[in-house]
Here is the input.
Amino acid sequence: MKKYTCPYCSMGFASVEGLKEHVVTGHPSEPLPEPEGLVSFTVNGRKYSLSVEPQWTLYYVIHDVLGLTGAKMFCDRGACGSCTVIMDGRPILSCMTLAIECGGKNIETVEGIATKKHPLIDAYVKHHCMQCGYCTPGFVTTAKALLDRNPDPTEEEIRAALGGNLCRCGTYPQHPTAVLDAAKTLRKG
Amino acid sequence: MMTMAEKMKGDYEKIRSDGQYRIGPDIPTITYDAIGRRGITRMDGYEKASGQAVYTRDVQIAGMLHAKVMASPYARARIVSLDTSSLEAKPGVRAFIRFDDQEIKGKMLNGSYFGPEWVCPDIAGWALKPVRPVLGDEAWYEGQPLGLVVAADNEDVAVEALSQVKVEWEQFPFVLDQESALAAEAPVLRPDAKDNLLADPRSLIEKGDIEKGFKEADRVIEFDARRSAHFWAGAELPSVLVRWVGDKLEMWVYQQQPHHAKMLLSEALNLPMNRITLHTPYMGCSFGGRGNPANNSENGINILAAMLSKRTHRPVKLTYSRREAFFGESGDMMSSHFKIGFKDDGTITAVDIKNVFAVYMCTPGVEHLIENTSIPNIRCQTQTADVSKGPAWWCRCEQLPNSFCLTLLFDHVAAELGLDPTEVALKNDGYEGKGKSHLLEYKKKYGFPEVDSLKECIEAGKKAIGWDEKWHAPGARKLPNGRMHGLGFTWNHEWDDVRGTASAAVMIENDGTVSIIAEHPDIGVNPWTAYCQIVADELGLRVQDINIKPFTTDSGFALMSPDGSCNLVTNGIVVRKAARKAKTMLLELAASKFEGVVPQDLEVKGEHVFVRKDPANRKTIREVVAKAMPSFVSCAFWTEAPVVAWAWHTQGLWGAALETGRPRLCRQAHFVEVEVDTETGEILVTKVVNVNDVGKAISPETVEGQMYGGTYMGLGRALTEELIWDQKTGVLLNRNLLDYKYATLVDYGPIKTLVMESGMGHGPYGSCGIGEATSTEIPALLSPAVYNAIGVWIDDFPLTPDKILRALGKA
Here is the structure.
């Protein structure tokens, strides 16, 4: 019985030794194969290759493994937007996304947005868009994704974009003001 | 001249005497620079906006285990047998504790903290409910943590482990609502009790003579009202992280009252308080919801995590999921019967209320009528029933029944007479059965500003909502879009200081910057900026040179926890006292470094100490306080003698404030405009106007934030927030934020906030609290607004579309 399969050409072997000899002689210059569960993606401009378990969410990987704690667990199941990150330009719920499906993706978190000194951060502080602050990063990432695709949004468009983010402290009226302010700063360059 | 008694005073007596609140207005002795100014950068702003603010849920320590507690699937049941053999060899499981473990068996949550004793399990709040075991075998409500706790390498393993144990349950009859619970045939829920009536020390409140009051009345009305349960549902989920360092305990807690938590832990674990360090990271909401140290989700998880950590010699983090966290409502469930007598001009002569609460209540419903009105004859009878629901706890806030009763009562009277409700409010404004003239006398006697706060609030609010143009008879205005238009109004006093004790130190660092030293849990109300504003103005320094890092109980000093809207009132005074003392020390030190001056000749502004008569003669604060030793006398560098001063302040214990004869002088008024769709039953809130006389707004943006937040929470409670139990099984059906709906950015129309500053608060600079007032006032306001729209009273909260349609005869 041929229990061992060559990861490069799928040829079968009965023993590990046989497979080893085949790989060394048959595929001497090929790169090492990626182990099962290894996922590579970019977070805030840095490349990561991580072994992830199939049930791990992107939230878990970002928050617990990479230590980027700006993504928050609030509702626990895709209802609040606090774990929002930007993936290939779209705001997505990292708690509802499996990490194993994120190979090759470009991901931006609130930490990346702050490091780049995006004007949303200053605008959010200036306009008191936070009370307890737990949901704030989710609003910032959602608003950043909006401004990336629409640099001059109307207040109505901002309200619609942020309508899926929950804030129990009720800071809502301050957000459109801050996003409009940040958009203005961005346009000024 | 000091009296002999004063001369006899030692340090302790002096500190205690200096820290006592005394009646009187707080007239500022300084020029405001930071205080009251807009545009001051929030202390916590960048951390929170950039995702760098750390919450307990975010903290990890190398090697930490994850713990989960089992929950009851039944409303009332007992564990007959628990087979945990599957856990013995399960990979990744590191420890578990069963309810019959010798160390946990019989261990009780150690009670409520509010009372005359160290712990008083029987005096207040949900502690009336006998859900006390830290890890028991009997469930009094579905979802109750009990039976088993598991620590494992990760959360998935812990959850799986709990699902694999075999439990045999014995179920018992349950009862869900208060009226059924008090019926003769109801199953008795507590062991050894004869019925489900819970002892309530405030079951009867009487003022004046109601029979006389009804006789004096031109009219008498009666009606019923009802409130279902809502839940605070904070953003962060409950968790605790524990590690032992030798015989010392280090914990990261998500608790509103960490100092109390430390005292309770010390008792529960028989561990001296000085061996416990609590870290208090940022908190993802609380509103009082994380302010019940006696609950399973606080005291309970702390004890379990500490025990598991001890057994495994590993750090342990115990977490609740959203589903697990979904119990414990806000002390809401009540049914009321009102009987009110009043004269034709709107003067209320008698109020008789019967309230039946479920599980919990400490505010019977008429306290604001006593504290706030000239109504002379009042009676309130309350009953509190035990039901098969989770523990309730006061949450933004326990005054909900009082506000509920005041709003409905006043608006029903106005409607019955066809009067403008703002006029009825003004007619009955007062204090303890006496009218406005009594309030005015009080203001004069103590030197408070003589402002008619309610009148000013009402006038400002009416203008902002367009009251005079829009007010109409009930059901009289149909809009072009087919919906019915309605307006609502309510009022109350502001939440003032009724409790609070705090200590804090102010230290000038070697470089001239200032640190406020004290533990304080952040629940988002931006208090730290306010403290820094106060210290800056009192010292004469720049606000950006003041800082506070209140993330641990180890500093020894503890500011008043953010409870009861007393946060700023108490803590503002204590940091001010410490700042004034530190300033005196600074000027004494500085005088020794100037030629021929005494401290009184000096003043501080910005970064400098200068001679008043010769401002050019100045030194930086850094020059004054920096190391003055000429050489390396010591290798520890500090200020010459440290410029650090501490203070203590108490603003009065719960309930005692009223006994000192301090009427609340600041008022609030709220207005709402709605459209009711009579086809769908939908209520659209198109505009809200909040008017709060906060006395003095230290941080205006923060005041506005509290009013916005309170409005959204209040509207949710009035319209969409409702815990729904399955009547057949007693299971809570909507344990998630998709089915339990609170406000989003797009749900309601604009909110206009008006901040009045009469200077009549009992807090620093004449301020008073703002955190809870709006969220507590708004909910009942929707009923008069809907009545004004459709001409039918629906006093059954929340006001969901089905109730509207039923009231209109369409369902």
